[in-house]
Amino acid sequence: MTKIDKNSRICIIGAGPGGLSTGYFLQKAGYKYVTILEKLPEVGGLCNTITFENKSFDLGANYLTPAYKKTLKLAREVGAKLYSESHAYCFNPADKKYTSLFGQATKNTTVWKFLWQSLKYFYERWRASKHLPEAGYAGVVQHAELTCTFDQWLIDKKLTALRELFKVPITLMGYGALEEIPAPYALTYMSNPTFFSLLWFGAGLPSIWPKRFIHGFQRFWQQISWNLTVITSVDIQEIKRGEKITIHFKVSEHKMNELIRSERKMEFDHLIVAVPLTLKIVEDLFTNKRTKECYLTQEERYLFGKVKTNPFCMTTFILEDTHLPHRLVNIMPVPDIGDVFIVTQQFEGNPFVSFYSRTETDDVPSKHDVIEKVKDLYRLMGSEYKGEYYTHDRWTYFPHVPVDMFKEGFYDRLEEMQGKNNTYFTGGLMAFELIEPILNYSDSLVKKYFL
Protein backbone atom coordinates (compact mmCIF):
# COMPACT_ATOMS: atom_id res chain seq x y z
CA MET A 1 0.00 0.00 0.00
CA THR A 2 1.39 3.38 -1.05
CA LYS A 3 2.05 5.65 1.88
CA ILE A 4 -0.15 8.75 1.82
CA ASP A 5 1.68 12.08 1.99
CA LYS A 6 0.73 14.04 5.10
CA ASN A 7 0.50 17.16 2.97
CA SER A 8 -2.38 15.55 1.08
CA ARG A 9 -5.63 17.49 0.97
CA ILE A 10 -8.39 15.46 2.55
CA CYS A 11 -12.11 16.22 2.49
CA ILE A 12 -14.48 14.69 5.03
CA ILE A 13 -18.19 14.97 4.30
CA GLY A 14 -20.26 15.00 7.48
CA ALA A 15 -19.49 16.64 10.84
CA GLY A 16 -21.11 14.04 13.03
CA PRO A 17 -19.13 11.71 15.35
CA GLY A 18 -17.70 9.73 12.40
CA GLY A 19 -16.49 12.76 10.48
CA LEU A 20 -15.23 14.80 13.43
CA SER A 21 -13.41 11.87 15.05
CA THR A 22 -11.75 11.00 11.75
CA GLY A 23 -10.65 14.62 11.34
CA TYR A 24 -9.38 14.65 14.91
CA PHE A 25 -7.34 11.45 14.45
CA LEU A 26 -5.93 12.65 11.11
CA GLN A 27 -4.86 15.91 12.71
CA LYS A 28 -3.17 14.05 15.57
CA ALA A 29 -1.41 11.90 12.97
CA GLY A 30 0.11 15.03 11.41
CA TYR A 31 -2.21 15.75 8.48
CA LYS A 32 -2.30 19.50 7.92
CA TYR A 33 -4.94 19.99 5.22
CA VAL A 34 -8.17 18.36 6.35
CA THR A 35 -11.48 20.07 5.55
CA ILE A 36 -14.86 18.91 6.89
CA LEU A 37 -18.04 19.85 5.00
CA GLU A 38 -21.36 19.77 6.89
CA LYS A 39 -24.80 20.47 5.42
CA LEU A 40 -26.34 21.60 8.73
CA PRO A 41 -25.57 24.91 10.48
CA GLU A 42 -24.09 23.04 13.46
CA VAL A 43 -21.84 20.03 14.04
CA GLY A 44 -22.72 16.90 16.01
CA GLY A 45 -24.95 14.83 13.74
CA LEU A 46 -27.28 12.72 15.89
CA CYS A 47 -25.71 14.24 18.98
CA ASN A 48 -28.13 17.12 19.46
CA THR A 49 -28.29 19.16 22.66
CA ILE A 50 -30.59 21.94 23.86
CA THR A 51 -30.74 23.90 27.13
CA PHE A 52 -33.78 24.53 29.34
CA GLU A 53 -33.63 26.34 32.70
CA ASN A 54 -29.81 26.15 32.82
CA LYS A 55 -29.68 22.40 32.21
CA SER A 56 -28.49 20.59 29.08
CA PHE A 57 -30.63 17.88 27.48
CA ASP A 58 -29.57 15.42 24.78
CA LEU A 59 -32.19 14.73 22.12
CA GLY A 60 -29.99 12.17 20.38
CA ALA A 61 -26.97 10.23 21.71
CA ASN A 62 -26.69 10.45 25.49
CA TYR A 63 -24.97 7.76 27.60
CA LEU A 64 -21.39 6.66 28.14
CA THR A 65 -20.46 3.32 29.74
CA PRO A 66 -17.07 1.95 30.94
CA ALA A 67 -16.61 0.58 27.40
CA TYR A 68 -16.33 4.15 26.01
CA LYS A 69 -12.57 4.28 26.42
CA LYS A 70 -11.75 6.41 23.35
CA THR A 71 -14.69 8.74 23.98
CA LEU A 72 -13.65 9.24 27.60
CA LYS A 73 -10.04 9.84 26.50
CA LEU A 74 -11.17 12.53 24.05
CA ALA A 75 -13.39 14.03 26.76
CA ARG A 76 -10.36 14.37 29.03
CA GLU A 77 -8.30 15.91 26.22
CA VAL A 78 -10.87 18.65 25.54
CA GLY A 79 -12.00 19.06 29.17
CA ALA A 80 -15.61 17.90 28.73
CA LYS A 81 -17.11 17.07 32.15
CA LEU A 82 -19.52 14.25 32.95
CA TYR A 83 -22.01 13.24 35.63
CA SER A 84 -23.69 9.94 36.59
CA GLU A 85 -27.22 9.04 35.47
CA SER A 86 -30.00 8.08 37.90
CA HIS A 87 -31.31 4.50 38.04
CA ALA A 88 -33.74 3.13 35.46
CA TYR A 89 -37.16 1.59 36.07
CA CYS A 90 -39.86 0.04 33.92
CA PHE A 91 -43.47 1.24 33.65
CA ASN A 92 -46.40 -0.91 32.54
CA PRO A 93 -49.18 1.28 31.08
CA ALA A 94 -51.73 -1.51 31.63
CA ASP A 95 -51.54 -1.48 35.43
CA LYS A 96 -49.63 1.81 35.88
CA LYS A 97 -47.02 0.05 38.02
CA TYR A 98 -43.27 0.63 38.16
CA THR A 99 -40.80 -2.25 38.35
CA SER A 100 -37.06 -2.24 38.86
CA LEU A 101 -34.95 -3.22 35.88
CA PHE A 102 -33.82 -6.32 37.78
CA GLY A 103 -37.43 -7.21 38.58
CA GLN A 104 -38.40 -6.83 34.92
CA ALA A 105 -35.40 -8.88 33.79
CA THR A 106 -36.27 -11.83 36.07
CA LYS A 107 -40.05 -11.84 35.68
CA ASN A 108 -40.01 -14.89 33.36
CA THR A 109 -37.24 -16.82 35.07
CA THR A 110 -35.74 -17.57 38.48
CA VAL A 111 -33.17 -15.26 40.04
CA TRP A 112 -30.62 -18.06 40.25
CA LYS A 113 -31.04 -18.99 36.58
CA PHE A 114 -30.71 -15.35 35.62
CA LEU A 115 -27.54 -14.91 37.68
CA TRP A 116 -25.96 -18.12 36.37
CA GLN A 117 -26.65 -17.17 32.76
CA SER A 118 -25.32 -13.67 33.40
CA LEU A 119 -22.01 -15.20 34.50
CA LYS A 120 -22.07 -17.47 31.46
CA TYR A 121 -22.65 -14.48 29.17
CA PHE A 122 -19.31 -12.97 30.21
CA TYR A 123 -17.58 -16.17 29.07
CA GLU A 124 -19.51 -16.46 25.79
CA ARG A 125 -19.01 -12.78 25.00
CA TRP A 126 -15.26 -13.21 25.60
CA ARG A 127 -15.24 -16.18 23.21
CA ALA A 128 -17.16 -14.20 20.58
CA SER A 129 -14.60 -11.38 20.79
CA LYS A 130 -12.05 -13.68 19.11
CA HIS A 131 -14.15 -13.55 15.93
CA LEU A 132 -15.28 -9.91 16.13
CA PRO A 133 -12.76 -7.49 14.56
CA GLU A 134 -11.64 -4.57 16.67
CA ALA A 135 -13.37 -2.30 14.17
CA GLY A 136 -16.00 -3.18 11.58
CA TYR A 137 -17.24 -6.65 10.63
CA ALA A 138 -14.96 -7.90 7.85
CA GLY A 139 -14.39 -11.65 8.24
CA VAL A 140 -17.42 -12.28 10.46
CA VAL A 141 -19.02 -14.20 7.59
CA GLN A 142 -16.49 -16.97 8.21
CA HIS A 143 -17.99 -17.70 11.65
CA ALA A 144 -21.44 -19.25 11.27
CA GLU A 145 -22.15 -19.01 15.00
CA LEU A 146 -22.26 -15.21 14.62
CA THR A 147 -24.19 -14.90 11.36
CA CYS A 148 -27.57 -15.25 13.06
CA THR A 149 -29.95 -13.05 15.01
CA PHE A 150 -29.06 -12.16 18.56
CA ASP A 151 -32.05 -14.16 19.82
CA GLN A 152 -30.78 -17.24 17.99
CA TRP A 153 -27.33 -16.65 19.46
CA LEU A 154 -28.90 -16.56 22.96
CA ILE A 155 -30.72 -19.82 22.21
CA ASP A 156 -27.56 -21.49 20.90
CA LYS A 157 -25.59 -20.41 23.98
CA LYS A 158 -28.46 -21.33 26.35
CA LEU A 159 -28.79 -17.76 27.59
CA THR A 160 -32.53 -17.23 27.03
CA ALA A 161 -33.10 -16.14 30.65
CA LEU A 162 -31.42 -12.86 29.68
CA ARG A 163 -33.97 -11.97 26.98
CA GLU A 164 -36.02 -9.55 29.09
CA LEU A 165 -32.88 -7.74 30.23
CA PHE A 166 -31.55 -7.29 26.69
CA LYS A 167 -34.87 -5.93 25.42
CA VAL A 168 -34.18 -2.73 27.38
CA PRO A 169 -30.82 -1.61 25.93
CA ILE A 170 -31.41 -3.18 22.49
CA THR A 171 -35.10 -3.04 21.56
CA LEU A 172 -36.14 0.01 23.58
CA MET A 173 -33.03 1.91 22.52
CA GLY A 174 -34.06 1.60 18.88
CA TYR A 175 -32.03 -1.33 17.53
CA GLY A 176 -34.99 -3.64 16.85
CA ALA A 177 -36.37 -6.86 18.30
CA LEU A 178 -33.92 -9.52 19.50
CA GLU A 179 -35.33 -11.74 16.73
CA GLU A 180 -34.26 -9.15 14.13
CA ILE A 181 -30.94 -7.63 15.11
CA PRO A 182 -27.89 -9.56 13.83
CA ALA A 183 -25.78 -11.01 16.64
CA PRO A 184 -22.57 -9.09 15.69
CA TYR A 185 -24.33 -5.75 16.23
CA ALA A 186 -25.75 -6.75 19.62
CA LEU A 187 -22.44 -8.24 20.77
CA THR A 188 -20.59 -5.08 19.75
CA TYR A 189 -23.03 -3.10 21.89
CA MET A 190 -23.11 -5.52 24.82
CA SER A 191 -19.40 -5.80 25.50
CA ASN A 192 -18.46 -7.26 28.87
CA PRO A 193 -17.82 -3.85 30.51
CA THR A 194 -21.19 -2.56 29.26
CA PHE A 195 -22.98 -5.75 30.32
CA PHE A 196 -21.47 -5.53 33.80
CA SER A 197 -22.56 -1.91 34.20
CA LEU A 198 -26.04 -2.88 32.95
CA LEU A 199 -26.34 -5.59 35.61
CA TRP A 200 -25.04 -3.32 38.36
CA PHE A 201 -27.22 -0.42 37.24
CA GLY A 202 -30.29 -2.65 36.87
CA ALA A 203 -29.87 -4.07 40.35
CA GLY A 204 -30.15 -0.55 41.80
CA LEU A 205 -26.69 -0.72 43.39
CA PRO A 206 -24.67 2.49 43.91
CA SER A 207 -22.95 3.17 40.61
CA ILE A 208 -21.13 5.88 38.69
CA TRP A 209 -22.33 4.41 35.35
CA PRO A 210 -23.78 5.25 32.91
CA LYS A 211 -22.62 8.84 32.54
CA ARG A 212 -23.74 11.89 30.56
CA PHE A 213 -21.93 15.05 29.52
CA ILE A 214 -22.84 17.96 31.80
CA HIS A 215 -23.18 20.29 28.82
CA GLY A 216 -24.49 17.63 26.43
CA PHE A 217 -23.04 15.33 23.79
CA GLN A 218 -23.29 17.91 21.01
CA ARG A 219 -21.25 20.43 22.98
CA PHE A 220 -18.55 17.76 23.41
CA TRP A 221 -18.37 17.43 19.62
CA GLN A 222 -18.34 21.19 19.27
CA GLN A 223 -15.24 21.23 21.48
CA ILE A 224 -13.64 18.56 19.26
CA SER A 225 -14.39 20.72 16.20
CA TRP A 226 -12.78 23.89 17.56
CA ASN A 227 -9.33 22.99 16.22
CA LEU A 228 -10.59 21.46 12.97
CA THR A 229 -11.45 23.19 9.68
CA VAL A 230 -15.22 22.77 9.43
CA ILE A 231 -17.44 24.51 6.89
CA THR A 232 -21.14 24.34 7.82
CA SER A 233 -24.36 25.07 5.88
CA VAL A 234 -22.89 23.39 2.81
CA ASP A 235 -25.05 22.31 -0.13
CA ILE A 236 -22.94 20.02 -2.33
CA GLN A 237 -23.70 20.44 -6.02
CA GLU A 238 -21.29 17.93 -7.52
CA ILE A 239 -18.54 15.49 -6.52
CA LYS A 240 -16.18 14.24 -9.22
CA ARG A 241 -13.84 11.41 -8.31
CA GLY A 242 -10.73 10.40 -10.16
CA GLU A 243 -7.02 11.04 -9.63
CA LYS A 244 -8.25 14.14 -7.79
CA ILE A 245 -11.52 14.81 -5.97
CA THR A 246 -13.32 17.95 -7.13
CA ILE A 247 -16.22 19.22 -5.05
CA HIS A 248 -18.49 22.05 -6.13
CA PHE A 249 -20.75 23.38 -3.36
CA LYS A 250 -22.84 26.33 -2.24
CA VAL A 251 -22.45 27.71 1.25
CA SER A 252 -24.35 30.20 3.40
CA GLU A 253 -22.21 32.69 5.30
CA HIS A 254 -23.13 35.41 7.74
CA LYS A 255 -21.41 38.77 7.57
CA MET A 256 -22.84 40.64 10.52
CA ASN A 257 -26.61 40.77 9.82
CA GLU A 258 -26.26 39.83 6.16
CA LEU A 259 -26.66 36.26 4.88
CA ILE A 260 -24.54 35.64 1.79
CA ARG A 261 -24.91 32.61 -0.46
CA SER A 262 -21.71 31.84 -2.34
CA GLU A 263 -20.37 29.08 -4.57
CA ARG A 264 -17.05 27.33 -4.18
CA LYS A 265 -15.05 24.65 -5.92
CA MET A 266 -12.32 22.80 -4.02
CA GLU A 267 -9.90 20.08 -5.04
CA PHE A 268 -8.71 17.27 -2.77
CA ASP A 269 -6.53 14.18 -2.94
CA HIS A 270 -8.78 11.95 -0.82
CA LEU A 271 -12.44 11.85 0.18
CA ILE A 272 -13.90 10.40 3.40
CA VAL A 273 -17.69 10.00 3.49
CA ALA A 274 -19.12 10.17 7.01
CA VAL A 275 -22.86 10.50 6.39
CA PRO A 276 -25.58 7.89 7.07
CA LEU A 277 -24.76 5.37 4.33
CA THR A 278 -28.24 4.70 2.98
CA LEU A 279 -28.73 4.66 -0.79
CA LYS A 280 -31.04 7.68 -0.68
CA ILE A 281 -28.54 9.85 1.20
CA VAL A 282 -25.42 8.71 -0.67
CA GLU A 283 -27.16 8.88 -4.04
CA ASP A 284 -28.21 12.46 -3.34
CA LEU A 285 -24.64 13.30 -2.30
CA PHE A 286 -23.10 11.94 -5.52
CA THR A 287 -25.74 13.28 -7.93
CA ASN A 288 -24.93 16.36 -9.99
CA LYS A 289 -27.61 18.85 -8.97
CA ARG A 290 -27.70 20.42 -12.44
CA THR A 291 -27.52 17.44 -14.82
CA LYS A 292 -29.04 14.88 -12.37
CA GLU A 293 -26.27 12.43 -13.30
CA CYS A 294 -25.33 10.08 -10.45
CA TYR A 295 -21.65 9.17 -10.03
CA LEU A 296 -22.01 6.15 -7.73
CA THR A 297 -20.28 2.95 -8.79
CA GLN A 298 -22.36 -0.17 -9.35
CA GLU A 299 -20.92 -1.76 -6.19
CA GLU A 300 -21.69 1.32 -4.07
CA ARG A 301 -25.23 1.41 -5.40
CA TYR A 302 -25.77 -2.28 -4.67
CA LEU A 303 -24.34 -2.30 -1.15
CA PHE A 304 -25.91 0.94 0.08
CA GLY A 305 -29.19 -0.19 -1.47
CA LYS A 306 -29.27 -3.02 1.10
CA VAL A 307 -29.03 -0.67 4.09
CA LYS A 308 -32.06 -0.21 6.34
CA THR A 309 -32.70 2.21 9.21
CA ASN A 310 -34.77 2.32 12.41
CA PRO A 311 -35.93 5.95 12.60
CA PHE A 312 -37.23 7.34 15.88
CA CYS A 313 -39.07 10.42 17.01
CA MET A 314 -38.03 12.50 19.99
CA THR A 315 -40.80 14.64 21.50
CA THR A 316 -40.34 16.85 24.55
CA PHE A 317 -42.85 18.59 26.79
CA ILE A 318 -42.54 21.05 29.64
CA LEU A 319 -44.68 19.26 32.25
CA GLU A 320 -44.75 21.48 35.33
CA ASP A 321 -47.22 19.17 37.10
CA THR A 322 -45.23 15.98 36.51
CA HIS A 323 -42.70 14.58 38.95
CA LEU A 324 -41.89 11.04 37.85
CA PRO A 325 -40.99 8.75 40.77
CA HIS A 326 -38.10 7.52 38.60
CA ARG A 327 -36.40 9.83 36.12
CA LEU A 328 -35.45 7.17 33.53
CA VAL A 329 -38.42 5.00 32.60
CA ASN A 330 -38.59 2.13 30.09
CA ILE A 331 -42.06 1.19 28.86
CA MET A 332 -42.60 -2.57 29.22
CA PRO A 333 -43.81 -4.87 27.76
CA VAL A 334 -42.12 -3.62 24.59
CA PRO A 335 -44.60 -1.22 22.92
CA ASP A 336 -45.76 -1.39 19.31
CA ILE A 337 -43.85 0.55 16.66
CA GLY A 338 -45.11 4.14 16.84
CA ASP A 339 -45.73 4.11 20.59
CA VAL A 340 -43.46 5.60 23.24
CA PHE A 341 -40.53 3.37 24.24
CA ILE A 342 -38.67 5.48 26.82
CA VAL A 343 -39.47 8.49 29.03
CA THR A 344 -36.89 10.60 30.85
CA GLN A 345 -37.21 13.44 33.30
CA GLN A 346 -33.50 14.00 33.44
CA PHE A 347 -33.28 16.32 36.45
CA GLU A 348 -35.37 16.31 39.58
CA GLY A 349 -37.40 19.51 39.77
CA ASN A 350 -36.81 20.33 36.09
CA PRO A 351 -40.07 19.94 34.09
CA PHE A 352 -38.36 19.05 30.78
CA VAL A 353 -39.59 15.52 29.90
CA SER A 354 -38.42 13.55 26.84
CA PHE A 355 -40.37 10.82 25.00
CA TYR A 356 -38.72 8.42 22.53
CA SER A 357 -40.96 6.79 19.88
CA ARG A 358 -39.71 4.22 17.35
CA THR A 359 -41.00 4.28 13.73
CA GLU A 360 -40.58 2.04 10.68
CA THR A 361 -37.96 2.72 7.98
CA ASP A 362 -40.43 3.80 5.32
CA ASP A 363 -43.06 5.09 7.72
CA VAL A 364 -43.32 8.84 8.11
CA PRO A 365 -45.97 9.18 10.82
CA SER A 366 -47.84 12.41 11.14
CA LYS A 367 -46.45 14.62 13.86
CA HIS A 368 -49.98 14.88 15.26
CA ASP A 369 -50.36 11.09 15.68
CA VAL A 370 -47.01 10.70 17.44
CA ILE A 371 -47.68 13.61 19.79
CA GLU A 372 -51.17 12.35 20.65
CA LYS A 373 -49.70 8.98 21.66
CA VAL A 374 -47.16 10.81 23.82
CA LYS A 375 -49.98 12.75 25.49
CA ASP A 376 -51.92 9.53 26.15
CA LEU A 377 -48.89 8.09 27.93
CA TYR A 378 -48.01 11.09 30.07
CA ARG A 379 -51.63 11.29 31.22
CA LEU A 380 -51.37 7.66 32.31
CA MET A 381 -48.22 8.65 34.21
CA GLY A 382 -50.10 11.35 36.12
CA SER A 383 -49.86 14.59 34.15
CA GLU A 384 -52.88 16.82 33.52
CA TYR A 385 -50.99 19.18 31.22
CA LYS A 386 -52.90 19.92 28.00
CA GLY A 387 -50.46 22.26 26.24
CA GLU A 388 -48.27 21.90 23.17
CA TYR A 389 -45.00 20.02 22.72
CA TYR A 390 -41.70 21.85 23.24
CA THR A 391 -39.63 20.08 20.54
CA HIS A 392 -40.33 17.32 18.02
CA ASP A 393 -37.73 15.66 15.78
CA ARG A 394 -37.57 12.56 13.59
CA TRP A 395 -34.09 11.10 13.29
CA THR A 396 -32.71 8.69 10.70
CA TYR A 397 -31.13 6.13 13.02
CA PHE A 398 -29.16 2.87 12.97
CA PRO A 399 -28.09 2.20 9.37
CA HIS A 400 -27.71 -1.57 9.24
CA VAL A 401 -28.24 -4.71 7.20
CA PRO A 402 -30.22 -7.86 8.12
CA VAL A 403 -28.70 -11.23 8.93
CA ASP A 404 -28.92 -12.57 5.38
CA MET A 405 -26.56 -9.81 4.22
CA PHE A 406 -24.03 -10.79 6.89
CA LYS A 407 -24.20 -14.33 5.50
CA GLU A 408 -23.61 -13.03 1.97
CA GLY A 409 -20.39 -11.27 3.05
CA PHE A 410 -21.78 -7.74 2.90
CA TYR A 411 -19.11 -6.32 5.21
CA ASP A 412 -16.24 -7.96 3.37
CA ARG A 413 -17.42 -6.31 0.15
CA LEU A 414 -17.91 -3.02 1.99
CA GLU A 415 -14.34 -3.07 3.29
CA GLU A 416 -13.01 -3.93 -0.17
CA MET A 417 -14.39 -0.59 -1.42
CA GLN A 418 -12.19 1.40 0.96
CA GLY A 419 -9.70 3.50 -0.99
CA LYS A 420 -11.19 2.92 -4.45
CA ASN A 421 -11.60 6.19 -6.36
CA ASN A 422 -9.61 7.72 -3.46
CA THR A 423 -12.79 7.36 -1.39
CA TYR A 424 -13.25 5.99 2.13
CA PHE A 425 -16.32 5.46 4.32
CA THR A 426 -16.87 5.68 8.07
CA GLY A 427 -19.74 6.04 10.52
CA GLY A 428 -22.54 3.94 12.00
CA LEU A 429 -23.00 1.44 9.17
CA MET A 430 -19.31 0.57 9.14
CA ALA A 431 -19.07 0.07 12.89
CA PHE A 432 -22.52 0.03 14.62
CA GLU A 433 -24.60 3.09 15.49
CA LEU A 434 -23.00 3.82 18.85
CA ILE A 435 -20.41 6.49 19.58
CA GLU A 436 -17.57 4.29 20.84
CA PRO A 437 -17.61 1.78 17.94
CA ILE A 438 -17.75 4.72 15.52
CA LEU A 439 -14.66 6.25 17.16
CA ASN A 440 -12.91 2.87 17.11
CA TYR A 441 -13.63 2.54 13.41
CA SER A 442 -12.48 6.07 12.58
CA ASP A 443 -9.24 5.51 14.49
CA SER A 444 -8.71 2.17 12.75
CA LEU A 445 -9.41 3.74 9.33
CA VAL A 446 -6.77 6.40 9.88
CA LYS A 447 -4.20 3.88 11.15
CA LYS A 448 -4.83 1.41 8.32
CA TYR A 449 -4.88 3.77 5.35
CA PHE A 450 -3.24 7.03 6.40
CA LEU A 451 -0.30 6.01 8.62
From TrEMBL:
Gene Ontology molecular function: oxidoreductase activity
Source taxon at top rank: Bacteria
Name of the protein: NAD(P)-binding protein
PANTHER family registered for this protein in UniProt: AMINO OXIDASE, PROTOPORPHYRINOGEN OXIDASE
